[in-house]
Design brief:
- By secondary structure, the chain is mainly α.
- The chain has five helices and no strands.
- The longest helix has 14 residues.
- It is globular.
Amino acid sequence: MEATGKNIEKIMKAEGVSPKIFARIMGWERPQAVYRWYYGETLPSVDTLSVLSKILNRPIEALLVMRERN
């Protein structure tokens, strides 16, 4: 979760989308949920990932960091 959160943070910064801006787009009062992703505490829901991928012009797969199983 932490690697995914850092990846989302990096992509959002690169695209100029702040947590506050994203929270407004989603209709949230506060951006705390986004910061919780950044810190690896939680992950966005599938619905939220869908919106985020559209805003950032990236497929959902580009936002998630998956580790390979041996």
